[in-house]
Amino acid sequence: MDILLIGGLWLDGSTAWDAVVPALRELGHRPRPLTLPGQGDGNASATLEDQVAAVVAAVDASAGKPLLVVHSAACSLGWMVADARPERIADLVMIGGFPHDDGHPYADLFEVRDGAMAFPGWEPFAGADSADLGEELRERLAADAVPVPEKVARGTVRLNDPRRYRVPVTVLCPEFTAEQARTWVAAGDVPALALAERVEFADIDSGHWPMFSRPAELAKLLDEVASRA
Question: Where is each AB hydrolase-1 domain found (predicted)?
Fold first, then answer.
C-alpha cells in the first residue's frame, strides 16, 4: 500500500521518517515521506493552503487509496486533506494529535519572529512528550528543526465537505493513552472526531516523536492499520 508520511511542526520529510521507511518497505509497503512547502524546501512564504495542496496532489498521485499518516499539529492538515479528498483515503492515521474544526487557527502556538515560528526548545515539551529522547537525539532534532512559516502557523483551518466524517481514522496514542483519547472524544473535547463514523485507537509506548524513538514499533502499527484498510 502507498503510505504518505507527514511530520508535524518543524519536521521535514528528508529526515523525520528515515528509520520508519525501511521498516515499512520490509513489510511490503510503499512509504513516501513528504516535505511540506515551507518546511524543508526553502519556501519561507508558503501558506497552509500550499501545504494542503501538496498533500492532496500526493494523494491523487497514489496508486489506489493511500494510508495518510499525519503527526501532531499536522493532524489538522490531514483532516483538511480528508475534507478535500474524502473518497481517496483508505485510513487517516493521527499520531499524537487531534484535528481542529473549521475556523480554528492551525498552529499559532509559539512566538513568530521574522515571518516564522522557530522551534522553541525542549522546555515546552518537558515530561512525557520527550522523556524517551536522549540528549544526543534532542540536540540533533533541535539542530534540524525547520522554522514554520507564519502563514502556515497562523493559517486558518477550512473544511467544507461532511463526507470527511466517513474517512476511517486511527489515533495512535504516544504520550497519552488510548483510554484517555477515547474519553476526550466521547466527552466532546474533540468535536471533529466525535462525528467521525469510525475511529480506532492504539497505544504506542513512546513520547511525542515515536518516528525517532520507536520506529520499528510505529511501522508495525502502521502495517496493522494498512491490513485493516
Answer: 3-220
E strand segments, 99-179: 116-117, 148-149, 169-173
> Phi and psi at residue 31, in whole multiples of 5°?
-75, 145
Residue type, 125: F
pLDDT tens by residue, 40-73 = 888 889 999 999 999 999 999 999 999 999 999 9
Q: Which three cell numbers stand for residue 79?
A: 483532516
* Beta-carbon contacts of residue 184 (< 8 Å; ≥ 6 apart): 98, 190
Q: Are 51 and 43 in contact (CB under 8 A)?
A: no
Please check whether residue 130 is in contact with residue 208, taking contact to mean a CB–CB distance below 8 angstroms. yes
C-alpha cell of residue 78: 490531514
Q: Return the CATH number at 46.
A: 3.40.50.1820
Query: For residue 145, what are the domain limits?
Result: 2-228
